[in-house]
User: Which sequence fits this backbone?
């Protein structure tokens, strides 16, 4: 194991944003991408950019579809090994969220050479490699650049049967939504930068962000699971809206049922909220109906960017117990039903019940 010098700057001090909070705001991204969907695509491309799904899917033959995704960001924590682990877990999650099994990864590395030591950079890569080993996949190559800010992530490839791909657009009226991980990672990352996060809070943050969403392939086998995604940089509200828009329906979330990491509400009330939360809300808040008197802190949590967040499962009511059993068996003890899919209609596509 390499030894990291103690005289280097904090990793988080070198980046203007951390984790999935680095994502371009949804409204800006939509403007950038408009028109690209008009490009011709082959029939083998089963999933592209049309519904902002978690990964691209290309059918190879009658039995196999290739899942391809990439994810990278700037540090969300100061420990280089933990940063590498979080970034790798987050990148691999997109394959699981399509119902696939990851098969290999490529590393994407941009580091400020001369500011960070080779030992520190090596620890970041070690962290990523440790998670890939846990997922049972090799890092088969990659690319490196000398960057102003530290950036790390992966290209991840996976496989699934074409009939078992779970998109984010397959929800049906009456479906129940089940969330696999509690919310609050964005708040915790903001608290860390403000020196407000204690040791127990940090342990909880690392535990949730480095837990692989391994339940995805097993969930994909259930006919009653109609849609699947993971909650990341656009927050729970943003990804619930993607489910609603993709299916042309509406989604209702029962806010009192949504799990929140311990201590997060208190940290948010102290001002530990990311700038990405505000940008997220500015992009899609007009499409969300809030209950009267909904507190600003709760609204910030609704839009809180989740780095390596949980699976959001959209399933038929008779399937809920089996979905929960699978998630709990994979170690997601906080997994719980949080809402349902409603018929389409006019007005906001996401409805929050207090």
Assistant:
């Amino acid at each position: 194991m390499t030894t990291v010098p103690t005289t280097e700057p904090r990793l988080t001090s070198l980046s203007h944003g951390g984790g999935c909070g680095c994502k371009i705001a949804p409204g800006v991204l939509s403007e950038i991408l408009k028109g690209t969907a008009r490009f011709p695509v082959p029939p083998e491309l089963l999933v592209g950019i049309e519904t902002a799904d978690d990964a691209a899917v290309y059918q190879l033959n009658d039995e196999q579809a290739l899942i391809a995704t990439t994810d990278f960001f700037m540090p969300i924590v100061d420990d280089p090994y933990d940063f590498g682990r979080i970034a790798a877990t987050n990148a691999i999650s997109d394959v699981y969220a399509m119902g696939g099994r990851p098969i290999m990864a490529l590393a994407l590395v941009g580091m400020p050479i001369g500011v960070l030591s080779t030992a520190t950079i090596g620890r970041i890569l070690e962290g990523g490699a440790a998670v890939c080993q846990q997922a049972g996949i090799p890092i088969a190559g990659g690319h490196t650049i000398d960057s102003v800010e530290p950036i790390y992530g992966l290209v991840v490839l996976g496989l699934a049967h074409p009939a078992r791909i779970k998109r984010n657009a397959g929800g049906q009226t009456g479906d129940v939504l089940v969330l696999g991980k509690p919310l609050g990672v964005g708040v915790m990352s903001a608290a860390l930068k403000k020196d407000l996060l204690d040791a127990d809070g940090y342990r909880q943050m690392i535990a949730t962000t480095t837990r692989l969403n391994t339940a995805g392939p097993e969930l994909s086998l259930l006919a009653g699971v109609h849609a699947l995604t993971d909650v990341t940089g656009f927050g729970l509200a943003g990804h619930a809206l993607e489910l609603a828009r993709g299916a042309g329906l509406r989604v209702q979330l029962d806010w009192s049922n949504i799990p929140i990491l311990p201590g997060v509400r208190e940290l948010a009330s102290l001002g530990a909220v990311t700038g990405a939360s505000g940008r997220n809300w500015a992009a899609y808040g007009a499409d969300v109906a809030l209950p009267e008197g909904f507190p600003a802190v709760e609204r910030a949590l609704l839009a809180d960017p989740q780095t390596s967040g949980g699976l959001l499962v959209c399933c038929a009511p008779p399937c809920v117990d089996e979905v929960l059993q699978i998630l709990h068996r994979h170690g997601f003890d906080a997994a719980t039903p949080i809402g349902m899919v409603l018929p389409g209609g006019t007005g906001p596509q996401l409805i929050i019940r207090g």
The chain has a mean pLDDT of 93. The chain has eleven helices and 13 strands. The longest strand covers residues 101-111. Residues 100 and 160 are 5 Å apart (CA to CA).
